[in-house]
Amino acid sequence: MTVKRPDSPKRRVTSTDVAALANVSQSAVSRVFAHHPSVSDKMRRAVLEAARTLGYRPNAIARSLITQRSRIIGVAMAYLDNQFYPEVLQSLSRALQAYGYQILLFTADETGAADPMLEQVLSYQVDALLLASVSLSSHIAEECELAGIPVIMFNRTSSTPGAASVTGDNFAGGRQVAEFLVAGGHQRFAYIAGAAESSTNRDREAGFCAGLAALGMAQPMRVPGQYDWQSAQAGTRLLLGRPTRPDAIFAASDLMAIACLEVARTEFGLSVPHDLSIVGFDDVGVARWPSYQLTSFAQPVEAMVSAAVTLILERLESLAAPPRPIVIPGRLIVRQTTRHPAQGLVVEDGERVWRTPSETTEGP
Amino acid sequence: MTVKRPDSPKRRVTSTDVAALANVSQSAVSRVFAHHPSVSDKMRRAVLEAARTLGYRPNAIARSLITQRSRIIGVAMAYLDNQFYPEVLQSLSRALQAYGYQILLFTADETGAADPMLEQVLSYQVDALLLASVSLSSHIAEECELAGIPVIMFNRTSSTPGAASVTGDNFAGGRQVAEFLVAGGHQRFAYIAGAAESSTNRDREAGFCAGLAALGMAQPMRVPGQYDWQSAQAGTRLLLGRPTRPDAIFAASDLMAIACLEVARTEFGLSVPHDLSIVGFDDVGVARWPSYQLTSFAQPVEAMVSAAVTLILERLESLAAPPRPIVIPGRLIVRQTTRHPAQGLVVEDGERVWRTPSETTEGP
C-alpha cells in the first residue's frame, strides 16, 4: 500500500488506507488517534494493528487545518551567545514538549526587530508566538492578535498596555543593586548599558538610578554595552581610563560583567573587589565558575518559563483569558566580585543573598 | 470578509476570498504567490492589492500538503548548556532561514536517544531531520529514509555505512593533541572522557591513544566526564588526588577542560601550565576569555553548518544525491594552559596554532 520510490516525493499512508485494511470507517480511525472515549478496545486494537502494518502516522499538518491548531509555538530569539537564552530555550522546549507542543525557531539578529520575519512566522500558522529578546512593532502585534495568534513577550515588555509578557523584576533588581553597593560603602558608580532600545535595559537602568538617587548618591557614569562582549570591554576601558575611575560597576548582563572583569584584571591590573566591585545580571552558569564568582541579580529561568507556558496554554484553551504582564521576582546573589555590606546578607537555598535591611527607604 | 471573533478559533482569509475580491480565478491567485513567470503585472497588482485589503497570507501548511514540502527542517539537539550547540543552532538557523527554511526544534535529554521523539517529529512532516548530539537507532533512521525524510547527523556519525553526517575530524584532533603534548615534554597523560556512547568521544579518545602509542608513550589514565561540568570536576579530583598525578590532561570538550582547570587551580593549588597542562576540544567562546586562555582543538562551526546545509539542500533537490559522511578538518589553537613545544607553533588567521612538524610519524 505504501509507495516508496526514491525518485519521487513520498506518498504518505493515509487514514483511508488504514480504514480499508482494518475494515472500519475512516472516521473510526480518526477517533482512535484522537483518543476518543467512545472507541472500543476491539476497534482500537484493529486500527492500531493495521496502522503498524502500513507504517501509518497521523498527519499533524493535515489535522491542523481541520482543528485550526498546529501544536506549533513560534519562538523568535536572538542572543544565543548569551548563556541566558540557551537556558531559556532548553527549559521552554522541554516544558512545551511535555504538553505536546513543538517550537518553530526563528533566530533574529541582535537589532532585535522581529517584524521582517513576521510574514514567515504567520504563514506557518503557529498557535502562538513567543518573542524572547526581540521586539515587535505595535502594528504587527495587533495583526497577530487579530489573526488569532496570541503574542507573548519574554524578557521584554510591550508598549501596548496589558499585553502578555513575562519578565524578571528588572526595575527592582536595578534598585537592589544600587542599595547593595551603597551599603557596601562605594561612592563612584558606573553603569554598562545593554541594548538601548530594550525594555530590560531601560528598567534595570531606571531602577539603578532611582536607587542611587533615593540614597542621595550622584547619578552613575554610563557607557553603552549592547549586551555584547566587545562593546562591554570597550566601555570598561573608557570607565577605567578616567582620572576618577568608578569604584563600583553595574553591568546589565553577566556576559558584560565578565567582559568588564577581565579588562579590569588583565588590562588595568586591578584587584576585584579590593579596588573595584562589579555586579552583573541574569546569574547564568558562568557566574558561578570559580574564576569569576560574580555577584549577580538572578532571574529565575524556570519560573519565568513556567509562567510563559501558562500564559500560552491559557490563551490557547480560552481566548477570554486576559493577556497580562507577569513579573517574576529575582534576588541578588552575592559572590566574590563585590565588597560586602555589614548587614543584609542571608543564606537562601545554599546561596548568599542580599536583602535590603531597612524598608524605610521605600517610604510609608 | 475576515471573521475575527475572539471566542472562536480564527477563520483564515483564503485564496478564494482574494480571488473573489480581485475578480480573478483562485488558480491565478496561487500563481501570483508562487511567483509564476506567466503572471502579468496587471494581474499581480490586482491580486496583491486584494490580498493586502483582506490581510491574506499564503498558508504554508496547506501548500505543504500539495507540494509535499513543508519548508521545515526538524532539528533534534541536546546539550544547550555547552556553548558549542547554541553557536551551532544560531548559525544553522540563519543559514536555513536564508534559504526559506525554518527549524522545528526538538530538545532531547542528555542520554541522547532521539527515538522517543521520532513519532512526534515524523507527524510534522519535516522535509529533513538533523540530529545534533543525539543518536538514532538504525531502525528509526531507516524508517525516516523510507518515508522520504533525509536524516543528517551533526557532530555524530551513524553506524550505518555511508549515512549523511558532518563531523569535525575528531580522530585527527585527538591524535594532534597527543603529538603536541609529547612534543611539549609531558610524560604522564590523562583523558577526561565525554559521553561514552557518543561517536565524538570514541574518535577523540581513539586518536589520542593512537597518537600516544605511536610515540612510544604509555596509555593515558582515564576518567569519565559525560560532557558535563560536575562529572569532569569529579574526574579531575580523582586524577589529581593520585600519588602519581598526570602532568597533562586532555578533556574531550572545553566545558570539561574548564571544569578541570578550576579544580586544579582552586582545589589543588596547581599552577597551570607550570605544574599541569590542560587541553580542551571545540574552541567555544569561553576558551578565549582571559581567565582561561584554554588550548583547544577548534571545530569550525561555520564550515560544519555550511556542509550540513549543503547536504540537506542536495537531498531535498534531488533524492539521487548520495548521503555521505563529511569530515571538516580542525586545528589545535595554542593558548596559555599548556607548556609549549620548541617547534611547530605557527600563526594562522591571528591564532597561534600547532602543526605536527614531522610527517614521518605517520609512516610512508
Structure description:
The structure is a homodimer of 364-residue chains. By secondary structure, the first copy, chain A, is of the alpha/beta class. In chain A, 39% of the residues lie in helices and 17% in strands. Chain A folds into 2 domains: 68-168 and 301-328, Rossmann fold (3-Layer(aba) Sandwich), CATH 3.40.50.2300; 170-299 and 331-361, Response regulator (Rossmann fold, 3-Layer(aba) Sandwich). Chain A is built from 12 helices and 14 strands. In chain A, the strands form 2 sheets. Chain A has an 8-stranded mixed β-sheet with strand order 7-6-8-9-10-12-14-13, sandwiched between helices. Chain A has a 6-stranded parallel β-sheet with strand order 2-1-3-4-5-11. At the A-B interface, α4, α5, β2, α6 and α11 of A face α4, α5, β2, α6 and α11 of B.
Number of helices of chain A: 12
How many structural units, i.e. domains of chain A?
2
Shape of chain A, please?
A: elongated
Mean pLDDT of chain A: 86
What is the CATH class of the largest domain in chain A? Alpha Beta
* Quaternary organization: homodimer
Structural class of chain A: alpha/beta
> Beta-strand percentage of chain A?
15-25%
Strand neighbour order, sheet with most strands of chain A: 7-6-8-9-10-12-14-13
Main β-sheet description of chain A: 8 strands, mixed
Provide the CATH architecture of the largest domain in chain A: 3-Layer(aba) Sandwich
Question: Which regions of chain A are unreliable across 5 or more consecutive residues at pLDDT < 50?
Answer: 1-9, 359-364
Domain HTH lacI-type (chains A, B): 13-67
Organism (chains A, B): Elstera cyanobacteriorum
Keywords (chains A, B): DNA-binding, Repressor, Transcription, Transcription regulation
Protein name (chains A, B): HTH lacI-type domain-containing protein
